[in-house]
Amino acid sequence: MQATVIKTSSIEEYLKQEEKAESKSEYIDGQIIPMTGGTINHNQIVGNIYAELHFAFKKLDYRVYVENVRLWIPEKRIFTYPDIMVIKEEPIYYENRKDTIVNPSLIIEVLSPSTQNYDKEGKFAAYRTIKTLQEYVLISQTQIYGEKFVKIGNKQWLFQEYHQEDQQIELELNNMKLNFSDIYHKVEF
What we know:
six-stranded mixed sheet, five-stranded mixed sheet, alpha+beta, tt1808, chain A
């Protein structure tokens, strides 16, 4: 039996490759992993949430980033592209790169059937190492469903589940509410 050789890349090689790439890839401790394409529902939900957050935080000291801004997670040596990130005050950039930040307060991921286990487990474990992160929200694209995790202490997170169209996800960030009717506006299951 022949062993499979897995090529590892340096951070510098990955960042150089990403600058030229037509599609995005994640970097997980030396491994470059191509990201899968999104669906119409995924795109609609991300757009709907971004619009709500952008409007709500327009005159406040928050910044909302969507899909193309990279996140560096130093403790896990991961570069990834969350669907939505909210940063309180000013962004802190990885090595002065204006395309990579390190200080999100809120991360929202829209679940895809192919990545939902990773988003709920592996990715969330990595996200929990980010000192500034206070909330993590997962939204389904195949049904009305959401999960919210709020940091309540050192290595302590409170879990809430949502599954009815008339519900709201109450974000700790500025006490904002995301209505499912807005999140799923124009989404067809």
